[in-house]
Design a protein that fits this description.
Elements lengths: L1 H20 L3 E5 H4 E3 L5 E10 L11 H13 L15 E9 L8 E8 L10 E8 L5 E8 L5 E4 L4 E4 L4 E10 L13 E6 L4 H14 L4 E6 L2 E5 L7 H9 L2 E5 L3 E5 L4 E4 L4 E2 L2 E5 L3 E11 L15 E11 L4 E5 L3 E2 H10 L4 H13 L3 E2 L1 E4 L1
Parallel strand pairs: 15-24
Antiparallel strand pairs: 1-14, 2-11, 3-4, 3-6, 4-5, 5-10, 6-7, 7-10, 8-9, 11-13, 12-13, 15-16, 17-22, 17-23, 18-21, 19-20
């Protein structure tokens, strides 16, 4: 019976050791953590008009909007003067989109529309045909269509109601590509570069070794933490096939020990491999409450007309209460994880923002084995 227990204990120990060894690395494909140089999205921007708004568009104070309406109507043979434009059913907008790598004419991309004037809402509006330009000033796409806002704003005489952000909207597949993306795979046809999404010397070296093993005829070199170059003696017949073969190679990725906290939303995200040294934490809250009250002092027992120095007075009364509870103490042993720490802090009823303050103090004390990123 004792021998069986020993075997069971050794088996569980082996499983634990294997799990611990794989806690900081995991196998991924190269295309999940890197990209080929030259393959990226391209930003597009344009200026347009949204028509069909129910009185929630730009006011007459926006001369740029009024001038744009006049110019648009003149293109259709309608001649009007700027003082004749009094409608609030039109809004000037900035239109943005991303042109994917290797995009071809006719491909549809999503469009984002944002108000450029004092429009209250873009709900129910339709974007007129708008050209979209790249950073080089060339036309790459044309946008048009009904706007999806996902919110609203309604106003009355003395009240208003609003949901979400009604001055920004989307047009799914709202732009048609007119010219292909100017970017291609960077290189001379005999070489290509692999760029890591998150530069790391260890991961770059592992990618170089994995590609070198899969491509014995190529010269593979890790240039630095974020770039690996692959050179071929002879230009391959199909560069697409070579890229597809490389991006599907599996490597062991080394994860960074990192904690990301957002003070705006009170969010804390930590990897399971982030460890904490032996530390003692004492955290207490001091609550000070100041209460002001005003009382009216009215003189009594005065008959006849009072003098100039006698009258009603307002007397302020200030009450100050200070409450400092006993600080809770949490002790963490060497090698504890952030999950253990957060659980212990939650057990003593600390808020999320207090947890963020404690993590910052632990990092300052040098007891946090990882990078603390504050957003």
């Amino acid at each position: 019976m004792a021998e069986v227990d020993v075997k069971k204990f050794l088996f569980l120990l082996l499983v634990f050791v294997c799990a611990s060894a794989g806690a900081t690395t995991h196998d991924v494909k190269i295309k999940d953590i890197a990209r080929v140089a030259g393959v990226r999205d391209n930003p597009l921007t344009g200026y347009g008009l949204v028509f069909g708004l129910a009185g929630s568009g730009d006011s007459a104070r926006n001369h740029a909007t009024v001038q744009s309406i006049v110019n648009t109507l003149r293109n259709f043979g309608v001649n009007v003067a700027e003082p004749d434009i009094m409608s609030r059913n039109v809004a000037a907008v900035i239109v943005t989109a991303k042109l994917p790598a290797f995009a071809e004419p006719g491909q549809l991309v999503d469009v984002q529309v944002a108000s450029a004037g004092d429009a209250r809402s873009l709900t129910g509006g339709t974007l007129m045909l708008t050209p979209l330009y790249g950073p080089d000033g060339k036309l790459y796409a044309m946008a048009q269509g009904a706007i999806s806002v996902g919110g609203y704003q309604f106003e009355g005489m003395v009240a208003s109601t609003q949901k979400n952000h009604p001055t920004v909207g989307w047009i799914p597949s709202g732009a048609s590509v007119e010219q292909g993306s100017p970017l291609r795979v960077a290189g001379d046809g005999r070489s290509l570069s692999i760029l890591l999404d998150d530069p790391d010397f260890t991961n770059a070296n592992r990618i170089a070794n994995a590609v070198r093993a899969a491509e014995p005829g190529a010269v593979v070199r890790a240039e630095h933490a974020g770039k690996v170059t692959v050179s071929y003696p002879v230009a391959p017949s199909s560069l697409v096939s070579e890229v597809a073969r490389i991006e599907n190679i599996t490597v062991a990725q080394d994860r960074k020990a990192r904690i990301v906290v957002s003070e705006r939303t009170g969010t804390v995200v930590a990897g399971g491999d982030v460890r904490i040294g032996q530390v003692t934490i004492s955290h207490g809250n001091l609550k000070v409450e100041i209460k002001n009250e005003f009382s009216v002092s009215q003189p009594d027992g005065i008959y006849g007309r009072p003098g100039a120095s006698i009258g009603t007075a307002i007397v302020p009364r200030t009450e100050i209460n200070a409450n400092e509870p006993v600080a809770n103490v949490v002790r963490m042993h060497e090698g504890a994880s952030v999950a253990d720490l957060v659980g212990a802090l939650r057990a003593i009823k600390l808020s999320t923002r207090d947890v963020i303050a404690v993590l910052q103090s632990i990092k300052a004390a040098g007891a946090l084995d990882g990078e603390l990123v504050i957003q």
